[in-house]
Amino acid sequence: MTIKQIIEQIEQKQSLLCVGIDPVMERLPSAVVNTDKPLFNFGKQIVDATHKYVIAFKLNTAFFEAYGYRGWQQLEELAAYIKEQYPQIFLIADAKRGDVLHASQMYAKAFFEQMPFDAVTVNPYLGKDVVLPFLKYEGKWVIILGLSSNPSAWDLQLIQEIGTRDYVFEKVFRYGSWWGDENKVMFVAGALMAYKLQQIRHIVPRHFLLVPGVSAPGASLEDVLTFGLNDNYGMIITISRSIIYSSQKDDFAVKAAEKAHQYQQAIELNLKKIQQRKI
Amino acid sequence: MTIKQIIEQIEQKQSLLCVGIDPVMERLPSAVVNTDKPLFNFGKQIVDATHKYVIAFKLNTAFFEAYGYRGWQQLEELAAYIKEQYPQIFLIADAKRGDVLHASQMYAKAFFEQMPFDAVTVNPYLGKDVVLPFLKYEGKWVIILGLSSNPSAWDLQLIQEIGTRDYVFEKVFRYGSWWGDENKVMFVAGALMAYKLQQIRHIVPRHFLLVPGVSAPGASLEDVLTFGLNDNYGMIITISRSIIYSSQKDDFAVKAAEKAHQYQQAIELNLKKIQQRKI
Asked: B279: distance to nearest CA of chain A, Å?
């Protein structure tokens, strides 16, 4: 998928929303649990109900691996289903893989050849070697973990370098932008502190950011968009549990769609507000 | 598995060797490729041929995921086979996972509940949250990526902190040793520069190190053991391709066993040499 196609989706749907599908068996409605393929069926219904409001779907591999090879098989089937039904929607494997060159090649094979994902999230701790194999695939993307939004993100990411005074996460954005341009590389940029997105935009003005953690304290949608948008929009806002678990009863897909629609409308409103401010 | 059981294996076999099983279809002998379960059959034959010389086996998930859910199924079968046949051998999932708390829980479930691994390698970039869920399992281990031995390891791992002058990889060893003691936590410590193991031993005198990259220039087995051993031995030397691909013909298992035996003998010799030096 090209950056142009992503921007077309954004403009057509007036949305930056990505729905993250993280199925935990204990939280699925019983009508879904009591089927042959609960993970697939849950995901399929969420996708069919929300696709109008989203520009991306994100499947986190952890939630499929936890159910063994049958879980992995459902991950494959769900990815194939999404790509077949909604080829214009950007499909992300949230796998956070990161290994040395010859192993990283095999991960690229898994997500880009065995499965039809458009993008994979990767962990930069082992450096450039992790990213290179993914960049060889035409029309595919790598999304590098830059700044995460979890409580212990600071342990390593906020170590400050001697001399340059750069933080480790800033190094990741800088190096990542050297490894691949805005047509191949995106970054995870957690919204825990919206003002940090401003720092990040200085380093990577042109790359897309995948932003989790919106609506946490200190990360209102308006702040996040104000600090993070660029001339290509440049942001994908990813929301998982607060959409997919809006209801745990049989109306889960309807409720998820309502919630996704609310997020899309809030994004549309803020996009307009910010555009008007610029005029 | 307890640290005592690992030490018993070391003393009984006079070995620190771990064989890494990274099956790449193109490199497997045709007799294996032309079976229903090539990855499993290759792994099984390697395991049966080399188990006398090793204290650990390591399966890298990348090499199974690359072949889809059938690959994952063979990973499960191979792990189950090894644990059933050789329960005293330490079984490592080289998965390099690393995600936020609620996703990390699912990875722990995958490797410790769905599969019988004793240990999983994890990536510390997201901090303590990654490690916590794995520590909750009695008798299981987490192996934190500290210093890797790939060419781009330096990109992030050798960033030096303002004030403390610590390198990022040193922080990982220090924090990791706070997160879990030597009965729960090990570290990957690449042998690219054997003298670095000395630095690492100052920070984590008691923890086990999983050491890839031995026999690279600047990382002779003798140097690595001299700098890395502690009172509990404290080292697992992991070798993959130079053992499992000793031959790509039908004699691959016999040749792998010969190579593993050579490594075991070299380890035994060096262990004796170093012990004598101490007397």
From this structure: 39
Interface check for B123 against chain A (CB to CB < 8 A): the answer is: yes
Residues 94-113 of B with CB under 8 A from A: 96-104, 106-107, 109-110, 113
A160 neighbors A117 (Cβ within 8 angstroms): no
Distance between CA atoms of residues A53 and A47, nearest Å: 10
Query: What are the start-end ranges of the E strands in A50-118?
Result: 56-60, 90-97
Q: Which two tokens stand for residue A13?
A: 């749907």
Tell me what ipTM this predicted complex has: 0.97
Query: Does residue A190 belong to the interface with chain B, where contact is any CB pair within 8 Å?
Result: no
Hey, is the C-beta of A66 within 8 angstroms of any chain B C-beta?
yes
Contact A160 B161 (CB under 8 A): yes
**Closest by Cβ to A96, choosing from B65, B98, B172:** B98
Interface contact B68-A175, CB threshold 8 A? no
* Tens digit of each residue's pLDDT (9 = 90 or more) over A33-61: 999 999 999 999 999 999 999 999 999 99
Q: Which residues contact B90 (CB under 8 A, 6 or more apart)?
A: B1, B6, B9, B18, B55, B56, B57, B118, B119, B236
SS3 of A257-278: the string is HHHHHHHHHHHHHHHHHHHHHH
Question: In this structure, what CATH number is given to the domain that contains residue A132?
Answer: 3.20.20.70
Q: How far apart are CA B57 and CA A119, in angstroms?
A: 32
Query: Which backbone phi and psi does A239 adopt, to 5 degrees?
Result: -130, 135
Interface of B with A in 219-258 (CB under 8 A): none
Q: Which two tokens stand for residue B94?
A: 């080289």
Helix (H, G, I), strand (E, B) or coil at A37: coil
Q: What are the b/e assignments for A264-278, b being 16+ CB within 10 Å?
A: bebbbebbeeeeeee
Give the Cα separation of B262 and B215 in Å (integer): 13
Nearest to A12 by CA among A4, A20, A21: A4
How far apart are alpha carbons A71 and A64 in whole angstroms? 4
Q: Mind telling me the catalytic residues of A? A: 96
A152-202 pLDDT per residue, tens: 999 999 999 999 999 999 999 999 999 999 999 999 999 877 888 999 999
Measured between beta carbons, the chain B residues lying within 8 angstroms of A99 are 60, 62, 96
Confidence grade of residue B194 (pLDDT, cut at 50, 70, 90): confident
- Which percentage of chain B shows pLDDT scores above 70? 99
Residue A151's region, left for phi above 0, alpha for psi from -120 to 50, else beta, is alpha
Amino acid at residue number A23: P
pLDDT digits (tens, 9 = 90+) for A257-276: 999 999 999 999 999 999 88
Domain extent, residue A88, equals 3-278
| pLDDT score for A116 | 98
Place of tokens 């459902």: A74
For B139-159, write each residue's pLDDT tens digit.
999 999 999 989 899 999 999
Number of domains in chain B: 1
Please tell me the distance from the alpha carbon of residue A47 to that of residue A45, in angstroms, as a whole number: 5
